[in-house]
Structures are given as C-alpha cells and as structure tokens.
Design a protein that fits this description.
It is a single chain. By secondary structure, this protein is of the alpha/beta class. The chain is about 40% helix and about 10% strand. The strands form 2 sheets. A 5-stranded mixed β-sheet has the order 5-4-6-3-7, sandwiched between helices. It has a 3-stranded antiparallel β-sheet with strand order 1-8-2. Strand 4, helix 5 and strand 5 form a beta-alpha-beta unit. Helix 1 crosses helix 10, helix 7 packs antiparallel against helix 11 and helix 9 packs across helix 10. The protein is globular. The chain starts with 5 loop residues before the first helix and ends in a 16-residue tail after the last helix.
Length: about 325
C-alpha cells in the first residue's frame, strides 16, 4: 500500500464498498504481471492494471477487458532544471534520462514519446535514480540530464524548494494511466458486484479530489505503516492533490463530473497503437473489444454530497 492508492483507503474507511453490499478482499502483488495472471487463473475478480499490461494479456490469448478508467490522462512527463537547453523530445537524443526504476511506467511512457517522435529508446541512456531526494540530486549534480517521472514525484521535489521545467509531449497525453480490468467471464457472472465496486471507487475518487487531507487520514487510519513519524498531513495532501487532476478530464469541476470510469475510444486506440510500437501486440485488435463502458451509468449514479461535505456542488 502507498499513498497513490488513497482511493482504496477512502472506499474502505468510509464504507463505500459496504454501501454496495461488497466485502472487498485486497491482494497486493509486487510483480506487475501478477494481477493479470491472478485474474486469468480465476483467483480474483477485478485487477488494478495499466492498459499496456491488459493489452499484452489479450495478445497472449486472455479474454480480459478494461472496465473502469481511474486515471483519465497521462500524469507522466519529463522535468529538467531551469537552465537546461532541453526543450522537447528531439533534444533528448544522446542524453541521460533518470527514471525511478528501469521497469517504471514513466520509462515506458518515455519510450513511447521517443517512438512517436521517430526515435528509439536506444537513442537515450536510462539511469535508475529512485524517486524523491536521490532523483533530484542526480538531476542537480548532472548525473542525468532529464527526469521521466510523474506529477506526485515532482510535487515532492518542489516541496523541497526545487525549481523544475516540465516537458509534457502531446503524443502521450492520451495514454491514460492505471485503471481496472476484468475477465469476460467475471464481467458476465459478477456484473452487479463490478458495478458496485466502480461506483464506490468513483465516490472515493471524488473525495480524493475534493478532500485530500481527509483521504490522507483514511490511508493513515487503515494503513499506519504508510506514515513515517513526522509526516505532516497538509504536505502529504498537497502531494496527493498533484495527481488528482489526472483522474478526470481537464477543466471540469469534479463535483459535477459524470464521466467517472469511462473510456474514450480514441484514447483506447492510442494505447493499442502504443503496444504495437512496444512489440507487445500485433495490433490485430478491434477497439470495441478492448474496453466497455456498459457500467458507466451505474458508476456515476450517486449524489456527490453523500461522498463528503466538500464534494457537494456549489449552489
């Protein structure tokens, strides 16, 4: 468990799952392919997974589909120091790019940004820096020329006083982040449970967006090991909030938002094209078979005011 999954703690701690008559058992798996393997084996009903992992599983013959889009826009992009001469992806050729790990989703997004610009991942050198202070130190000391990370990671650096310039390629902006997938069998047999799970997650995401301090407290209440001794709730909430805006479309009020969990066909097609570039699929996919919005109306059928006091729309 880590703070990025605050939505889970909110849904658990505030009884949103219980409101849907659900008893949710959570399994944390370190291997990124583990959840989809567990789904294929019938050991779980729904998994938190990226689109590329789901599409790769489909390419291997697994009948899985995207069912709830929990991160609508890519929150992974580049950062440089203010005096850097790097202004776009083309300027990164031959440069050293710092990533959290060589298996991170941000590295994959960077690979795609390079590919979309007509380059290869081999045209740059990736260096694993970790996150937080070690990553910032690597950038400031010149061990890397640019970082490829995500909004919350950069917010942690800014909180230390760091000044960063950001480069967010338009080519990867449609590549939505982690969501939920399920098997065709589970979608058919457990439809009511999956619908309830999605509605609970939508309500919890609204809380995440509108009451980040409350969401942090929910995490600390249920998962006390996520809190170090002197954590400040306002600072933790500020970092959490950095990722909130990517959970819904740009320039909308989350309190009146009615598209929680939905997928855009163009964005799904962008991911299909991306996994072809990555060599994870041959691209012989009908986009309509990859995702479903059939439960979306149910996901969004709730009163925002019932999620939290700050969630009520302005009158």
């Amino acid at each position: 468990m880590e703070m990025g999954y605050a939505t889970l703690a909110v849904a658990q701690n505030r009884g949103f799952f219980a409101d849907e008559d659900l008893d949710v058992e959570v399994q944390f798996l370190k291997d990124s392919s583990g959840p989809l393997k567990a789904l294929a084996a019938g050991n779980v009903d729904i998994v938190s997974a990226t689109a590329d992992a789901t599409l790769a599983a489909r390419a291997e013959g697994e009948d899985v589909r995207l069912i709830f889009n929990s991160t609508k826009r890519s929150n992974q992009y580049y950062a440089t120091l203010p005096d850097s001469d790097i202004e776009d992806v083309d300027d990164m050729l031959g440069k050293k790019i710092g990533v959290a790990t060589l298996e991170s989703g941000a590295k994959l997004t960077s690979d795609l940004a390079l590919n979309f610009a007509g380059h290869d991942a081999e045209d740059v050198e990736y260096i694993a820096t970790g996150v937080g202070a070690p990553a910032l130190d690597a950038l400031q000391r010149g061990r890397v020329d640019v970082l490829a990370m995500w909004a919350q990671a950069y917010k942690e650096m800014e909180r230390t006083g760091a000044e960063l310039n950001y480069i967010a390629p338009e080519s990867t902006s449609l590549l939505f982040g982690t969501g939920f997938s399920s098997s065709a069998e589970s979608i058919e047999e457990n439809a009511e449970a999956l619908k309830g799970f999605g509605r609970a997650w939508a309500r919890a995401t609204l809380v995440y967006a509108m009451d980040p301090e409350g969401a942090v407290q929910d995490v600390w209440d249920l998962y006390p090991n996520t809190r170090t001794g002197d954590d400040d709730i306002s600072e933790a909430a500020e970092t959490l909030q950095a990722g909130a805006e990517y959970k819904f479309e740009a320039d909308v009020d989350p309190r009146t938002y009615k598209e929680w969990g939905t997928y855009d066909e163009k964005a799904v097609q962008a991911w299909i094209d991306a996994v072809v570039l990555l060599g994870l699929s041959d691209g012989e996919e009908d986009v309509a078979d990859v995702y479903t919005n059939e439960f979306a109306d149910f996901y969004n059928d709730f009163d925002p005011a019932d999620a939290c006091e700050k969630c009520a729309p302005e009158k």
